[in-house]
Write a structure and sequence with these properties.
The chain has helices spanning 2-35, 39-53, 69-81, 85-111, 118-131, 143-163, 168-180, 186-209, 215-238, 241-256, 260-264, 275-287, 294-317, 321-329, 331-346, 352-376, 381-396, 402-429, 460-468; strands at 443-445, 455-457. It is mainly alpha-helical. The chain has a two-stranded antiparallel sheet.
């Protein structure tokens, strides 16, 4: 009876926590839409979506160097609910909120049975994602956040299926779902599927070598190939494979592919020689706690926390929003380095968890192909949170001693507060959207029924409405 009561209480707490995360994320997306509109990028999506809703086909009827699914989704919104702008705002709010809830369940799943206080630690760590959610920085329908949502859904499902022993039908469907990313954003989908393919082959070879069952691998590959071939058939029968290849691969690659030097610029920061060393020193000190040296645990936790506190310190050091944003963005390469180092040397992760490390790092580098570090992270901050979860699990797994267990929760809380605080300033300053004149002129709100919810400073809205009248 007590166990049933405890489980019911846990469900209520989890429901409340999920509701809070969803509501905070959706509220921030809505708030962002009340104070700015990025007309150029917004029109780039909704204009094409409108044409599709009216019956035109991309690639065949008009030039279109993008993957189709984000535009088809917005076209479906227009067809179902009418050409009203605030419907698209609601879409972004809902998807962003669901993404944060998915992230929370992913992190809780990674911590369950491995860390003390898994639900509490997971909640602490995920809070910044409610601020830096997939649609919180750029609050209009776009392909990078949509692709991040599909990736989160795939990760959540993979972890759930691992606990069930990979049932064949669901594993087949998971493989099919992974293909969807390729038709939301090309560089994200190619990187995501490419690294999954490599990890899958390695895992298959290890399973054969150990004489373990390879049926889950075959079900997953079957779903992946079936979905990919089905998508190619649909494209061939509607717009033509040659048209699709011309615009989404040939033309898009010629326009956007950066040089190898630009790709490596993500690591062009002198602090990347300092912070990983400091973090790993803190790890060493923390592990020495088992010898009874309390001071080591304290100093180790502080040393590990300093790199995450650095973006907050920079809020005091400089008033320049671009400098502040750069310090926050530079957490990405730092987390890449320390996660790889810890995973390789500690070797506590296994199964889907260890594959996730390489999948997320490789996929993120594929995302950087678009606009490098500064321009590409706006829709993918939840992926950084997953890496941090994997890092904490590697460091604090089976930490049964209360002081060590507390250290893991405290470190998660410090990371959460630091990223959340720096992320809040990042969102408020709109540094990622510095190309938009969002502070010039008086705030204007559209009075046209079709543009209800459109808000921005300047004379754009009054001038347009005068033209319409």
């Amino acid at each position: 009876m007590a166990d049933a009561s405890s489980k019911n209480f846990e469900r209520v707490v989890n429901l409340a926590a999920g509701t809070v995360l969803f509501a905070v994320t959706a509220s921030i997306v809505w708030w962002q839409n009340t104070r700015l509109t990025v007309l150029y990028d917004l029109c780039g999506v909704l204009e094409h979506a409108t044409r599709i809703a009216q019956g035109d086909l991309p690639y065949r009827d008009f030039p279109f160097p993008y993957a189709p699914l984000t535009f088809l989704t917005q076209a479906a919104v227009i067809k179902l609910t009418g050409a009203v702008y605030w419907h698209h705002i609601v879409y972004c709010c809902v998807v962003a909120g669901l993404a944060t809830v998915l992230l929370w369940r992913i992190v809780a799943g990674l911590f369950r049975d491995h860390l003390a206080r898994p639900e509490l630690t997971a909640f602490f760590l995920v809070v910044p994602a409610a601020i830096l959610g997939i649609y919180c920085i750029f609050p209009h329908p776009f392909y990078d956040p949509d692709a991040a949502f599909i990736i989160l859904l795939c990760i959540w499902w993979a972890l759930a299926l691992e606990r069930k022993g990979f049932p064949r039908v669901q594993t087949f469907l998971l493989g099919s779902l992974c293909v969807v990313t390729l038709f939301v954003k090309q560089n994200i989908g190619l990187a995501f599927l490419g690294i999954i393919g490599i990890c899958l082959l390695i895992s298959l070879a290890i399973s054969l070598w150990k004489k373990c069952s390879v049926r889950p691998h075959l079900y997953f590959i079957g779903g992946l190939l079936t979905a990919f071939l089905a998508a190619l058939c649909v494209i061939h029968l509607t717009v033509g494979l040659d048209n699709y290849k011309l615009w989404t691969i040939t033309y898009a690659t010629a326009r956007r592919t950066p040089s190898f030097t630009d790709m490596l610029s993500v690591y062009n920061d002198r602090m990347l020689f300092v912070f990983p060393a400091l973090f790993l020193l803190g790890t060493l000190l923390l592990k020495k706690y088992s010898e009874g040296k309390v001071i080591n645990a304290t100093l180790g936790t502080i040393a590990m926390a300093v790199p995450f506190l650095w973006p907050v310190i920079y809020l005091i050091v400089t008033p320049d929003p671009s400098e502040r944003a750069e310090r926050l963005d530079n957490l990405w390469p730092f987390v890449f380095i320390v996660t790889i180092a810890v995973v390789l040397f500690v070797r506590r992760l296994s199964g889907v968890a260890v594959i996730l490390v390489f999948v997320i790092i490789a996929t993120t580098h594929g995302i950087f192909l678009s606009q490098q570090l500064w321009g590409s992270t706006y829709g993918i901050w939840p992926l950084l949170i997953i890496l941090l979860a994997l890092l904490l699990r590697s460091l604090f797994e089976d930490a049964t001693a209360p002081p060590m267990a507390r250290a893991g929760t405290i470190l998660a809380a410090i990371i959460s507060i630091a990223i959340g605080f720096a992320g809040g300033f990042y969102i408020y300053s709109n540094e990622r959207l510095s190309y938009v004149s969002f502070e010039d002129g008086d705030m204007q709100h559209s009075t046209l029924p079709q543009l209800q919810g459109l808000s921005m400073r300047g004379d754009f809205i009054p001038d347009f409405e005068e033209l319409v009248k």
